Amino acid sequence: MTATGRVVLVTGVSRDLAARFARTLAAGSPEHPPTTVVGVDVTPPRHDLGGATFVRADIRNPVIGKVIESRGVDTVVHMAMVATPSGVGGRSSMKEINVIGTMQLLAACQRAEGFRTLVVQSSAGVYGSSPRDPAQFTEDLSPRVQPRTGFGKDSVEIETFVRGLARRRPDVTVTTLRLASLMGAGVDSQITRYLGLPVVPKVMGFDARLQFLHPSDAVSALVAATRQDLPGTYNVAAPDVVVLSQALRMLGRPVVGVPQQAAAPLASALRSLRLTDLSADQLEVLTYGRGLDVTRFVRAAGWQPAYSSRAALAEFVATARPGVLAPQRLQRLVGTVADRISAGTGPARGGVDG
């Protein structure tokens, strides 16, 4: 059954993923006519919205309810959550946008008579990460250790508000997508900043299992959830897993082993130097890893990712600055040494004096 989708409001369109989604939905496809899309954010979009209309509005302000009513919005796709505190001036601002903003938006949705569909971009961060977790989380499993900080904690609170709306408005189709970490060319996130360090600290004795989602696959999943009636909560990720050591080898990054008890102080130091945004919950993911079972969404939506986790990582590697151990850099180094030896400026060819 197809969702109404006459007028779709998309939050957070000043950021890349929401802008790409709004543009794709507004353009339509051979099977689906163009959709009327209204994009909202507190700052003008930095990316092309295509056929979508932009309205400058703050979801933390009750005025968002007037936008929903005046535009005849029947579908809301909530993508205004912030995962990195440095981009909004700190953790307190991040929490205000994520938690207070969601509360105000859902209150406005609840009051809107014509509102019929809600799609929420949540995060796999709701599962946290611990050594006692299952190899793969299904949507019905709860984490052994709840996320205590950062975006994971915000995502848990957001989903609580979303379930509350679903109870109060049983006439509304509510879909929650728990997206894996985005990975691909140009992705700027906690994990990509960590992987981009010249020398990467890695907790000794652990090799985290990582699952990624290419931005184009995230967009296609959000489009599928918006165009269909898919009530419930779904994991969305590429099905394969890449371990952290494989990712670092692909990037050519030197690794320094860090004792587990020193990892949190080191992450704090890196945050103070603005080299990464790693929160405690993200550090746990990079230590213990996390896996998602995506069977439910694949079956319900007929969705298949175009990129595997490894392919998404390979695209990021191709556009990232090569590490000192990257094959292309090693080839250049070997070539330089060979040229110097052949020119007589390199190391002597005789034996070593004893």
TrEMBL record:
The keyword Isomerase applies. Gene3D superfamilies: NAD(P)-binding Rossmann-like Domain (3.40.50.720). Signal peptide: none annotated. Residues 8-237 form the NAD-dependent epimerase/dehydratase domain. It is an enzyme of class 5 (isomerase). InterPro entries: Epimerase_deHydtase (IPR001509), Lipid_A_modif_metabolic_enz (IPR050177), NAD(P)-bd_dom_sf (IPR036291). One of its GO terms (molecular function) is UDP-glucose 4-epimerase activity. Its EC number is 5.1.3.2. Keywords: Isomerase. Residues 129-149 are annotated as: Disordered. It comes from the Bacteria. This is UDP-glucose 4-epimerase. It comes from Microlunatus kandeliicorticis.
